[in-house]
Amino acid sequence: MTGEVLLQVDDLHLSFGGIKALAGVSLAAREGEITAVIGPNGAGKTSLFNAISGFYRPQQGRVRFEGRDITHERAHRRAALGLARTFQNVALFRGMTVLDNIKLGGHSRLAANPLSAMWYVGPARREEMALRREIEREVIDFLEIDHVRHQPVAALPYGLQKRVELARALAMQPKVLMLDEPVAGMNREETEDMARFILDIQEERGVTVLLIEHDMGLVMDISNHVVVLNFGEVIGEGTPAEVRAQPEVVRAYLGDTAAVGVAA
To answer: Which of 12, 94, 99, 152 has its CA 20 to 30 A from that of 239?
Structure first.
């Protein structure tokens, strides 16, 4: 690994009543790399994402971004610093068009004051038009969704909705992009398209990716580093090849197929 650590999680503990969702989780996401977080259902993966992005407040531990402690920053401040995410279940405004949904991601970067924004004049109008041009050029074309940009999200098939959610996150111009099960429920063709987009985001745009995914074929193909959770604890980490060979990981999650490199 050569990239600097961009996102550092140290000893995170998170409990809900008597249930421990995270019990001392630590990980590092290095600049320009894809770090995957895997584990069985209920292992604490989405709880970890929620703690990193500011939706949950851990009882113990630290989250550092570019060396800065952001443990107590609100979610919108973390987004403004460069943390963007998608969700396990599609979280779009279904009655709005594709373009309007994507533009919402870019609004975290706008600087117009509330008064000018309310009347949509002067700087607010110029910012909005510049944002639209940027999104059309840098995001919509990149993700190949120009043909649906004026359609309501509710009219789109599931795979395209997931791509629109990715586009909304990219509109935030993130330094770290957190993807929660980006190919869940997709067919093979849609999965291959999404894998290509994730790799292009990493390689062409230099975005650091933190990924939760159950599709082990995808994880092993595109990840630089893999962290394995089980019952809220890290039970293994390393390169995909190293993780596949760790006995505790095989027992807890990958199963016997890992020994011969078959996706579990």
So the answer is: 12
